[in-house]
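Deliverable D5.2: sample structural annotation.
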Amino acid sequence: MSSIKKNFIYNNILGVTNIIIPLISFPYISRVLGPEGVGIISFAISLAVTFIVLGSLGIPIYGIREIAKSRGDKTKLSNAFLELLIIEITWSLFVTLIYACWLFFTNTYQNENAIKYLSFIHIMSSVGLINWFYQGMEKYKFISIMNFIVKIFTLILLFALVKKIEDYWIYYAIIVISTFISAIVSILYSFRFIQFEKIKLNFKKHFNPIIILFSTQIAISIYVNLDVIMLKYFSQLEQVGYYSAALKIVKMLLIIVTSLGVVLIPRISSFIQENKTKEVKSLIEKSINYVSIISFPTMVILWILSENIIRLFAGIQFTEANYLIKGLSPLIFIVGMTNIFGLQILVPMDKEKKYMIAVLIGLFTNIFFNILLIPIIQAKGAVIATLFTEVIVLLISYYYSKKLISFSLSKNGSLKYLLLSLLFVPLSMILSKIINNEALYLFVFIALCVVIYTLALLKFKDSFFMNYIFNPIYNNLMFYRSKT
């Protein structure tokens, strides 16, 4: 099995873990804490993550590329890793000081000392989450196993300690403790791959690309977290809770759609370094096909089942989030494609400035629509602002990417996947009249959607599905069967 396939499998294990654990934990949390409790923690996490991104200095993206370029030489690898880690630690200390000033002058968490102090640990611990190093090294096995163990640990503590609405700070403490443990283990394990002899640190060469990607990351962080923060200040905590629940569901599904892209970044960087243009083009087109074939059925299923999902996932008190999920569902395709053009083409090809332009324009779009719409229609305004923002970033990223490399979008294939996915609509109408049990309806409907979609793709002999999904699975099953 090729290393890309292995990495893709491990990254999907990571993605599935990040989906299943919230599916288990969030229904419990939403019922124990309610919309207001969920709103408090969502605000705390969004604010901390904003400063975490500020402290990361764009290294989570830049680091993947630089580690991928130097992993063939242990001395170069060690230099690159230590340079980037020292830069990130130093800058994070400065950002933590800014965070302290923010809390002091804004009186944020004035009556929430536990949340306040935990947030400091959250920000500093995140420096040690050096996934960019392991992604650049293509060590997805370690990332997946580590993530799985920590998530299980978090889940056990959650059910053991969070029992009532007043325990919301304990929930945040569990998240922070998990982050801290992950950071310590990640740093210690990295010592297996680097050396401390013959180290000649050169920080200057990283400054220009880091500053560009840092600006990009700031803009992304602002427009990703601004909606939650602005809902807190211009609306009610319940609206934050509704929006956060809807966004969490959509982001969980996005993990599957964007999983291949994360795996391909270091490989594309290596191919570009070796001037293998055909291989880069081939990987990009495969990635586009993967996003299309997965995102369209996922969007349609999410749209149809939004009300059922939110009731099972968060409880009847979050029913209002149903409409927010429908509005956010197009993000599954939009963000999936943006990741290809921005992170798989522009960044590996050293065109960070182009990606920064796209994101900055998106940022101003997001601020404008949030200010305009949130005071009027609250969480629905945040949904509209997010959609406008992501569409703008997608179009600009595509424009710049198309100038760099000639790739095919396979418009006919995308239309075919969309039309086949629309078959789920009459199916849902029929099943809803036959099956009264909600959990059984969800299971049967999703299972039938998978079967119908698969059979239709086989009937049309879709080349991407046959070559890269069906045949590899079928051949592997036959191989293991012959072994037994």
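Annotation notes: The chain has 18 helices and no strands. The chain has a mean pLDDT of 82.
The annotation will be released with the project's public dataset once the embargo ends.
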